[in-house]
Task: structure prediction
Amino acid sequence: MAGAAKRAIRDAMPEEIELDPSEMDELDKLAEETRRCGISWDDLKSELGL
Result:
């Protein structure tokens, strides 16, 4: 049972990805723009599949 629980937790964790500084800057700009327009960052991430 404990093995199944650990496996479920591991499978539910989001995958980490490496971003270079230019990608981070672009995402930061996009996040700022969406905040100004009233779109939540969580909604945007969901739309983009992040």
